[in-house]
Amino acid sequence: MTAIKTVESKLKNNGATGITVWDFPAGFALAARIKDLRDSGKKIISKTESNTNNNGSHARYVLVK
To answer: What is the rounded CA–CA span in Å between residue 57 and residue 27?
Structure first.
């Protein structure tokens, strides 16, 4: 399965919970795959949330049906 198909599948399976970079192995280019999906016509919203393990933040991506 390609990286794009893996991300799309996780987005569909997780529904309103969405996905974050923490759902993938270290070094996975999630933001790039989200861009690829958006470029192909998928509507995906991004929600910024605080990390629980440091002072930063990350995006949670949710597929809009």
So the answer is: 17
